[in-house]
C-alpha cells in the first residue's frame, strides 16, 4: 500500500489520498523487514497514549511538589505561578460546582519530547553557595526549564507526518517503480516525478534552493538554468560558453554562483552576470553556509577559500596541500567544511585555522563522495574501494561499512536521514543507513538514463533530484523531506515581501566566520587560557608586543652635549631600571646583616674583660 | 514627686507674675501723665522681695523645712489629692535624693537610646529593600490603584439625571439610601469595604493584645508556680510521670541508654544505703519525729521519707534475658486469648498470602501500647487522686506558713521602728541563708524522691509487663530470617556454609580472572612504542568486513558510449586501490607521528661547549654536563586522538573564537560551569516560544508612563496581606510559650537543675 506525504496549508496540494491499487488487501500482515515501516497506526488520543505514564508522572509530580511545597514554606514566599499551582492543588481540581476535574493539572509532556528540547545538563546548586549566586542560578534554571517545557508543549503544533512507502507481503519496496508511485499518489505529488531530457550539454549538476522551490541545473558544457520546479516555471536559461564545474544557490533564490572553467561567477535569477570573482580560480566544488553567508569553494589547485557574500570579501584562503579538491561537503550543524582526498582521507576545515581541524583516514582508495547529515551526527563517505562508510562524526568513529557492487559516486542525505547513493546509472535510496542495524537492501532504487553526476534531496519535499548525462530526473522518495517547516527560518511558501524581510533579518543575525569551530557551543563557554597564551596571541594579532619596554633613546642635545660619551652616560643613568630596585634591596639587606654581625661581635668583645693581648685578636 | 514640686513652683511663679503685672500697670498709668519722668534705677534686695529661686534665710536663721512649706497645702482646697499624697510620701522620705548623672553620661545614655531607636526604625526597611533587590521585576509606582470597575461618577464629571423619570427614580433611591450605580453596593457597604484595612488592623491589634495578655498571664502563672510549694509537688509528679514514660520509650528504642539509666539508679541506691539520708537519723527527721506526736502533717512527711528510703534501697530486679524469655513464654500462655483474635503478623513479604491473610498488619505494638496505655491510665488516675489530696493538704500548710511569715514580718517591722536597721538586716540575711540551705536540701530530696518513685514504678512495671525491647529483638531476628531458607538442622547449616564458601570462591575467582588483565594494562608504559604500533592497526580498521548490499537492479555501469573510457578508468582505479592501500596507511601514520612529535615540548639543551672543560674542534661536551644543562619540560596533556588510530585531531587553540568568549568569570559566579549553565539556554525568538521569550527578557524595572514615582512610604512596609501572617505569628508565639512550659515539665533531672537555678536567682534577688 502506498501513501503519499500530505501537508496542510498549501492550496495546490490535496490531502492524502489513500491509494488502493493492486496491493490494497495485504496491508494487515505485519512486515518483518526492518527498512519498511509498519502500517501507520491510528492516531493516538491523549487519554490512550499516556494513561499509565500520566499516573506515574503524577505520582512523581505530587511527591515532588509536596517536597517543593515544604521548601516553599521554608522560604516563606511564592511566585505567582507557584501560588496558582498550590491553589489548584488545594482545590484538588474541584470546581465550585462540586465536579472534579478528571485531568487535574497541566497535561503531562512525554519524556522523549522533553529530552528533545533539553539543552545541557541541569546544574545542582550546592548547599553552601552565596545568596546572590544561588538566586541567579535558580532563576536561570527556572528560565531554561520554562523554555524546555514550553517548547516541548508547543511541539504538539507540528502536526504533519512524514510519508512512507510500504510494499506488499513479499515485495521489496525497491522494486516499486517511480511510474507506479506517481500513478498511485495524488496528481500534484505525481507531477513531482519527471524527467528532463537534456542530452546536449553533458552531465548535469544540480542544487535546490533552501526553500525547496527552486532548482538550479548546471550542464558540464555550459548550460545553466534555474527552474521553479514545482510549477515548471523556467526562470532563466543561459549558456556560459565554458565548462561548468559546479553550481550553487546563494542565500536566496535571487542569486547563484557558478564555478566555471577559470573563475567563479555570480548570476542573478534572471541570468544576468553580477560578478566575476577572479580571486577564486579553478573552483571545482562549492558549498554555501547559509547562517554565515559564506561561500566555501574548493579548487583544483588545492585551495579552500571562503567568500563572504554579504560584503563580498574573501574571508580566508587556505592552502590545503592536499592536491585537487573535488569532494566537498558541509556539516550543517557546525558549518565545518569536509573535504575528501584521493589518499583516502577526509579533512575537516574551519576558516580560522590553516591546518585541518581533523584528519581522518576513511578509505583505502580515494574518497569519491561524502555527505553529512543535518544534525551533524553522521558522515557518510564512499571511496574507490567500493565501500560506503558511515561515521559518527562527533566521536570520529566508524559505525557501518557497506560494500556496494560498483561504489557510490554521489551521495546525499535528506532532512529525515534517507541516504541516496548513485552507482553508475542507478540511484539507490537507503533508509536507516546511519543509525540502527546495518542495511542489506535499499529502500528504493531507480535507473536513470545516463551516469549520475549529481544527486540532491529537495528540502521539505519527498523528492530526490538526480542530474545525469542525459538530463535531470526528479524522483519521488516518500519520507525524505521534513514535513514541518519553521517559517521563521525557511518558509517554502513565502512571498517576495516575506523573502525580503527574511533577508534583512538573516543579515542582522549573520554569524561571524570566527565562530566556526567543531563545537558550535564554544561561544557559551568561558575561555580559560592563561595570560601568557593570551598575550602571545595578542602579540601575534597586533604584530608587536604592547607590553614590552620601550628602548630608551636619549634626546638629541645641542652644543656638543650629545657626544657619544654623554649619550652613553645618559643611557647608563636609566639602564637596568627594573633591576636596580632589587639590587638596592638585596644590598641593603646584606649591609644590615653585616652591621649586626659586627655589633654583636663588638658586644662580645666588650663583654669579656679586655686584656692587653686582646689587641691581637682578630675582629669578626 | 518631681511633678508635685514643679506644680508648686508654678503656683509660686504665678503669684510673682501677678505682682509684676501689677507694677507694670502702675507704671503705665503713671506714664499717662504726659511728661516723662526719668526712671531711677532701683536696686532691690533679695531680703525684701521673696524670690522663688532662693529662699533667704537671713531673717529667721533657721532651716526652712519641707513641712513648713507644705503646711499650707492642707489648707488649700484646690490642690488635688494625688499631689497631696505624693507630697506626704516625700515628707516621709529620709534618704537624700540621688545625685543626677553627669551631663556626659546622660548624653551618652540618650545617644545610646536614640541610636537603638533609629536603628530599629531604619532596619525596618531592610527586608523590603532586599526583597526589591531580589525581585525579578519591579513595577513603579509601587502602589497602584486597584483595577476593576469604576463608578460612572468617578470617571465622568457632571452627569445628572435629567428626564423627569430619571429624577424621580433617583430621588426615590436617594431617599432610601439605595445603590444608584451599577456596582450594587450601598454607600455603607462601600464605606465598610474601604474601612476594611482599618478593621483588620483593629482585629490584629486585638489579637496582639490578647496574645500579650496571655503572655503576661502565662508569665505570672509561671512565676506563681515556681513559688508555690503545691505546684512544685504537682510538677514533680508530672516530671516523674514523664520521666517514667521516657524511660519506657528508651527501653524500646535505645536499650543501652536505658541500661545506663538503670545503673544510675543502682548508684543512687548505693548512695542511699551509704548515707542513710532518709532514715530517721537526720536532724530534720529527729525534729519531725518529735513533732510527729502532735502534728499530722509531720507524721505524714516522716512516712513519706521512710518510703523514699525504702524505694531507694530496694534492689532493682534487673531482668536477665533468660528470665525475659521465660516470662515471654508465661505471658504468651497467659495472654494467648488476646493474641489469638488478632491477625498473625505475616513474616514473608514476598508471599503474603501464604498465611491466608491478604494484608500485612502489625498488631503487636498496638496491643502492647494498649496494655501500656491502660496501665498508664490507671496509674495516672491514682496519681491524680493522690495529687489532689496532697494539694489540698499542702495548701493548708501553705496558709499556715504564710501566716507565720506575716507575723514574723510584723514583728520585724515593729523592731525596725525601734532599732537601728543594720543588725536587723544581718539577721535577715542569716535567716535567709538558713532558708537557702534548707531549700537546697529540699531540692536534693526532691531529686531523690523522683528516683525512688521511679524505682517503685519501674518495679511494678517489671512485675506486670515484660520489657518490650526483648520481643523487639526477637522480631528483628525473625525479620532477618524472612525471605530466606530457614536453617533448622545441622545439615542445613553445613549446606549454608558450603554455599558461602562457594560464593567466596566465585568472588575470589572473578578478581583472579581480572587481575591478569590489570598487570597488562600496568605494564603498558614501558613498551609503549611497540604497543602503539600495534594499537594503530589501520589495516584492520579499514578492512573491517563490510556488509554487502544487494541491489535488485543490476547496475549497468558500462554504457556503450563511454564503455572503453570507463573500463580504463575503472581498471586504473582498481590498480591504484590495490597498490595504494598500504602506502596510504603508512603515510597517514607518518603524518600522525609527525604531528605528535610537533606537539610534544622539546627538551632545551643549554650546554655551552668549552666551559669547565676543554673545547675545540671535534670535542663534545661531556655527557654529565649535557645531562646537567638539559631542561625537561612537563609533558602535555594527552592528545584527543590518542585512542583513535585513524584520526588526527588538531591540538591548536582556536584564538578567533576566544576573542568572542568570556575570558573572566562575571561576578556572582564561582566557577565556569555555573556560568556556562546559566548561559546555555538561548533566549531568542528563534529558539523559544513567544511567552518564554517575553518572560526571559522581561525588563527589571517597569515604569508607568506619566505616573509619579514617589519614595516608599511607611504604609508600603506593612502590606495588607500580612494580617493573616500576624495572626499566625501570634498563635505561634503562644504555642512556643506552651512548648517551653512543657519543656520545663519534661526531663526529670534537667528540669530539676533548672529549678535549682531559678531558686538561686530568687535568692539573689532577695539578697
From TrEMBL, chain A:
Q: What is its main location?
A: nucleus
WD repeat residue intervals: 360-401
Q: Where is this region: Disordered?
A: 1-108, 555-602
Question: Which keywords describe this protein according to UniProt?
Answer: Nucleus, Phosphoprotein, Repeat, WD repeat
Example GO CC term: the record gives: 90S preribosome
Query: How does the annotation summarize its subunit structure?
Result: Part of the small subunit (SSU) processome, composed of more than 70 proteins and the RNA chaperone small nucleolar RNA (snoRNA) U3. Interacts with DDX21, NCL, NOP2 and EBNA1BP2.
Q: What does this protein do?
A: Scaffold component of the nucleolar structure. Required for localization of DDX21 and NCL to the granular compartment of the nucleolus. Part of the small subunit (SSU) processome, first precursor of the small eukaryotic ribosomal subunit. During the assembly of the SSU processome in the nucleolus, many ribosome biogenesis factors, an RNA chaperone and ribosomal proteins associate with the nascent pre-rRNA and work in concert to generate RNA folding, modifications, rearrangements and cleavage as well as targeted degradation of pre-ribosomal RNA by the RNA exosome.
Q: In its UniProt entry, what is this protein called?
A: WD repeat-containing protein 46
> Whose protein is this, by species?
Astyanax mexicanus (Blind cave fish)
Q: Which gene underlies this protein? A: wdr46
From TrEMBL, chain B:
Which intervals carry biased composition (Basic and acidic residues)?
399-413, 713-739
Q: Where is the composition biased (Basic residues)?
A: 622-633, 740-767
Instruction: Look up the domain of life of the source.
Output: Eukaryota
Compositionally biased, Acidic residues: which spans?
Answer: 320-333, 363-398, 414-451
Any one of the GO CC terms? small-subunit processome
**Which InterPro entries did the record assign?**
SSU_processome_Utp14
Family, according to the entry, reads as follows: Belongs to the UTP14 family.
Q: What is this protein called?
A: UTP14A small subunit processome component
Residue ranges, annotated region (Disordered): 311-453, 490-536, 615-645, 713-767
Q: Name one Pfam family in it.
A: Utp14
Tagged with keyword Phosphoprotein: yes
BP terms from Gene Ontology:
rRNA processing
UniProt feature, compositional bias: Polar residues: 503-520
Principal location: nucleus
The protein's UniProt keywords, in alphabetical order, are: Nucleus, Phosphoprotein
Q: Subcellular localization, per the record?
A: Nucleus, Nucleolus
